[in-house]
Specification:
Blueprint (H helix, E strand, L loop, with lengths): L4 E4 L2 E4 L6 H8 L7 E3 L3 H11 L5 E6 L7 H9 L6 E6 L4 H16 L4 H12 L3 E5 L4 H5 L5 H10 L2 E7 L2 E8 L2 H16 L5 E7 L3 H14 L4 E6 L2 H7 L4 E7 L1 H4 L3
Parallel strand pairs: 4-5, 9-10
Antiparallel strand pairs: 1-2, 1-3, 6-7, 6-11, 7-8, 9-11
Helix pairs in contact: 2-3, 4-5
Length: about 260
């Protein structure tokens, strides 16, 4: 893992290395200005690949959407600077645990002897069943960070709506405008129900921004409603949390290849 960083005041923290999600949100509560995020430097990327080249002949690096971070392009550029290892950067088109599905499946396949080409082909297949929807308490975080259009934020504040957001063509856009959090969660649940009836096993991950109690409550409800779906719990880390704000809640799901493609 090569972490992105958050800049809080004059301090730079590497996500999951120098600061936890809980510590991050605690700091943000007392700040006047929102933190910013930054990607790894070219030097850090090259150093990591040079270390990997000692033991491996190829690396598949899985990145968050190239439309919300320049990390994917930076890695693609740095790959040509490293000798002795082939680098295959993969633009997941998404973030957080939805992005993590690709890393976990790639690791599982590699462990069982799959080739780079087989893993990348599997990634493209996975994209067909991948869904992710989330809602935030304050759209201004996304707008100020340049991750959502200004018009959507103005509309949200005027109408007191809880928009459901998702990734479309690798960008964060408003999927649907809902009047309350409860109705928004119900709408997301309804879409999961529809996909659960398509004939393939599903793994779903509830993702929260320092709102574990609410996330666990939703997970418990969903496990009773959809016993055939395998549910997991995850969280928005500091980098994505910078743009979503505390209290954000969402869910991602995908075909459960652990069950549909067992080794």
């Amino acid at each position: 893992m090569l972490p992105l960083s958050v800049v809080v005041g004059n301090e730079v923290y590497r996500e999951e290395v120098d600061i936890t999600s809980e510590e991050f949100f605690e700091k943000v509560r007392t700040m006047e200005n929102l933190p910013t995020s930054s990607q790894p430097t070219t030097g850090e990327i090259v150093t990591l690949f040079e270390q990997l080249a000692k033991d491996y002949d190829a690396v598949i690096s899985v990145h968050l959407s190239s439309k919300i971070s320049g990390t994917y392009q930076n890695v693609a550029g740095a790959a040509s600077m490293v000798e002795g290892i082939k680098v295959f950067p993969y633009d997941s088109g998404i973030s957080c645990m939805a992005q993590g599905y690709f890393a976990l499946e790639g690791a599982r396949m590699a462990k069982h002897g799959a080739t780079v080409e087989e893993i990348l082909t599997a990634f493209d297949e996975m994209q067909k069943t991948l869904r992710a929807y989330f809602m935030v308490d304050d759209l201004n975080h996304l707008v100020r960070g340049g991750r959502l259009s200004n018009g959507a934020a103005i509309l949200g504040s005027m109408l007191k709506i809880k928009p459901i957001l998702h990734f479309e063509d690798k960008e964060i856009v408003v999927f649907e405008k809902i009047r309350s959090s409860k109705k928004a969660l119900k709408r997301i649940e309804g879409m999961l129900v529809e996909d659960s009836e398509k004939g393939y096993p599903i793994v779903a991950t509830i993702i929260h921004a320092n709102a574990e109690e609410e996330a666990l409550k939703w997970k418990k409800h969903l496990e009773k409603t959809l016993p055939t779906v395998r549910f997991e719990l995850s969280y928005f880390g500091p980098v994505i949390g910078t743009h979503l704000g505390e209290g954000a809640l969402g869910m991602a799901w995908i075909e459960d290849r652990n069950r549909s493609h067992p080794y």
